[in-house]
Please model this.
Amino acid sequence: MFDLDRWREILQTINKNKLRTLLAGFTVTLGILIFTILFGMGNGLKNTFYEAFQDDAQNTIFIYPGFAKKPFKGFKENRRIEFENEDLDFLKEKFEGRIQHITARIRKGVTAKYKNEYGNYTVRAVHPSHQYIEQTDIEKGRYVNENDIKTDARIAVIGRLVEKDLFGNEDALGEYFNIEGIIYRVVGVFSDKGSGDREERTIYTPVSTTQLIYKNTEKIDQINLMYDINIGANGARKLSKEIEKELKKKHNVAPSDQNGIYVRNQIEDLEETLNVANVLQIIVLWIGIGTLFAGVIGISNIMVYIVKERTKELGIRKALGAKPSSVIGMILQETIVVTLLFGYIGLLIGNLILNSMGNKLEDWFITNPNVSQGTIIGATIILVLSGLIAGYIPARRAAKVKPIVALRDE
Amino acid sequence: MIQINELHKSYRMGSNELHVLKGINLDIKEGEFVSIMGSSGSGKSTLLNIIGMLDVAERGEYILDNVPIENLSEKKAAIYRNKFLGFIFQSFNLINYKNAAENVALPLYYQGISRKIRKEKSLYYLEKVGLADWAHHLPSELSGGQKQRVAIARALASEPKVLLADEPTGALDTKTSYEVMDFLQGINDEGKTILVVTHEPDIADMTKRIVQLKDGVIEKDTFVEQVRASEHV
Ligand SMILES: Nc1ncnc2c1ncn2[C@@H]1O[C@H](COP(=O)(O)OP(=O)(O)OP(=O)(O)O)[C@@H](O)[C@H]1O
Ligand SMILES: [Mg+2]
Model:
């Protein structure tokens, strides 16, 4: 492999027989080209799928209190359970390693007014983390931040349709408006395309502000959290169970009580998404392997033909003292070099085509620069392996060439 | 140099068996210049190919430079060919995409000799056959006689003990044939053992010993007074 003379010998053969090499390489270029484009489009498809079906993050757990139906430890039945800020802090601390984001949620139906316009909307008082869990897209301005929570700021992030209803053609950003008699400043406008109009008629406020204004309580309606997706579906199930158990204990709810505390997760949805994504990936992979295989068979066939055409030359080399191993090595290495060279060309053209297919595809395709580096290394390994497989049969044929047969004068 | 005892060879073609060599006995000393003659199909090439380790005998003994040649693996045969033998063919058998110097250097490549020395040696032998100026020409740019001289240079480059030539002048006109024989005689004068297959009597007369093959055996084996090719050029 690292014999410099062998390399010279091969480069000369390739160089002096350009048409032949081109012919052999063409199948590889074509194979890799199709592979690259399919792979790129497959990736695009997968991303489209994620975008279309995965509006909200699916690695989430929603927790909310209900009524304890069973008496427990001296507590009476039909008792209302309520969450407070400290429940959120408790979960945050207890499951620190597995929780990525956690937020409280308080829900209020309100009437909001701006100048002469007014309408009925839902206020959600939340922590900044809520943005990641709901996957809210900020169109302008910003979301609720930590400082808002600390200072009980009277700010609001309003839905696109709230802006449209109340502000008409005006820009709501920085404007003051009225929710149930209290003046709030608009710091952001969001959109949430996947969730429908209802979602875009929501107003977000800092959780602390709402708690202060409404009777200065510590109460919260619901806790939403996002866990590390790497714990997988089973890890998520386990986490849900543990949360339920801990909260029941804390609030003196019988472990068997179905109604005291609700812990809802979307594991089934998540599993479905992961499954569909996997199926897509597998389909793309198989198509890729198929085209690659076709390319390998193509070059292998042409190399067999080339070996046949070079029978005389191989016979001469053998008569002059070429060992079978040397002939095998030569053909194998030649195949690998041609495969690699023309494979890269196919990769390059494939990428150029994908890039020229429009911005969207480009965005999907180059999502992570680390991936493309890995792809090149991966492609090199795959190409070398392909060359090795493709070269095997022709090299064996070459080794079997008998000098007397090859050199017999016709 | 070459000892052959009771050598047999037959070819099987379907159910037919063609017995080509039926007990050849031949003893060739170092420095001899032998021509093998016989009618077409008498087995001249077959014998030369066995001596050249390109083919194997069926029965009998073959000793080359005191090494018994039997049951060779392909690898061993390649090494022996490379070390002991130089080949010259009727149709030259140069590699068409390599220039003269590269063709001459090829057996040296298979000897594992460094590039620099390969270059030096190939030029040295091309000069010896009078083709130094043609070193960088492709075979397609050379005349038949020149091609055969390149082939001779290539056969000499590996410094073999024996030179084997199967009808080296078969594709050449009389004048160039004699030029080629002149070279071979010069090489033989320097002490190299040479075997030439030919069916041209005038070429055979330019060697020192004529072996006549007929019906698979040696019919006649005579030492002759060598005719110098230079007198006819
Ligand atoms: N590989 C083979 N398979 C079958 N028969 C063969 C094979 N090689 C040679 N023969 C036969 O063996 C016989 C001797 O062939 P060989 O080539 O040795 O003859 P030759 O004396 O060199 O003839 P020519 O002067 O025509 O070159 C011929 O009849 C030929 O047909
Ligand atoms: Mg013959």
User: Anything to note?
Assistant: The first strand of chain A starts at residue 60 and ends at 65. Residues B 11, 13, 18, 20, 38, 40-46, 199 surround adenosine-5'-triphosphate (ligand 1) (CB under 6 Å). Chain A touches chain B through 26 residues (CB under 8 Å). Residues 60-265 of chain A form one domain.
